[in-house]
Amino acid sequence: MDRLKPCPFCGEKNAVVIRINYTHAVRFNVRCRQCSCMMNRRFVSEEEAANTWNRRVGDTDGKERTE
Ligand SMILES: [Zn+2]
Asked: pLDDT per residue over 35-66, tens digit each?
């Protein structure tokens, strides 16, 4: 999936969804490969992590509608 917005800190388009494996569950987060920043939260789905990451950047271009 390549729908992640640029990193809010370094501005690079290097963000990826990462999977975190716990003993009893799997969580997701988004991490920037450029500056290694991550959100301070864990998400139950890739989509939720990606959506939150994208919202965090601030939708300056106003493209929030999917269709
Ligand atoms: Zn970054």
From this structure: 999 999 999 999 999 999 998 655 555 555 55
Look at residue 61 and tell me if it is in a domain: no
How are beta strands 26-32 and 15-21 bridged, if at all?
antiparallel
Classify residue 38: in a domain, yes or no. yes
Q: How many domains does the chain have?
A: 1
Q: How far away, in angstroms, is 65 Cα from ligand 1 center?
A: 25
Tokens of 19: 């999977």
pTM, entire model = 0.76
CA distances from 17 to 5, 10, 33, 62 (A): 11, 17, 10, 23
Three-state secondary structure call for residue 1: coil
What's the gap in Å between 64 CA and the centre of ligand 1? 22
